[in-house]
Amino acid sequence: MARSPKPIGDVLAELMARRGFARVQATAALEAAWREAAGVLIAEHTRVGAVKRGKLEVIVANSILLQELGYQKADLLSALAEKLPDEGIQDIRFRVGTVEPGG
Predict the structure, then answer these.
(1) 56-86: per-residue pLDDT in tens?
(2) CB-count burial class (<10 Å; 0-12, 13-18, 19+) for 85
């Protein structure tokens, strides 16, 4: 029995989901939004993690930066909500960890 052809949009969506392209694209968008919200200098010393249950995890290079970002959290949340309204980011969790230079 012959199957009817699928719309190209459905085929592409399925292919992108299988290959993880949407996740890669979402990660790149999150990193770009963080870079804009935090600024280039701070972004150089941080690494964006995942959004889980509305909470964005951000790895920071040291405890001094962690404390400073704590003071800026409300402004960062506002900027991220404006840049990524569909992500539903309601909180940011900062933690000290390894951050690769230039990345």
Answers:
(1) 999 999 999 999 999 999 999 999 999 998 8
(2) exposed
Predicted TM-score of the model (pTM) = 0.73
Closest CA to 61 of 102, 96, 35, 92: 96
Q: Write b or e for each residue in 16-46: b if 16 or more Cβ atoms lie within 10 A of its Cβ, otherwise e.
A: eeeeeeeeeeeeeebeebbeebbeeebbebb
Query: Which domains are seen in the chain, by residue range?
Result: 8-96 (3.30.300.180)
The pair of three-digit structure tokens given for residue 27, joined into one six-digit string: 């990660």
Residue 38's alpha-carbon distances to 9, 18, 48, 52, in angstroms, are: 36, 32, 11, 20
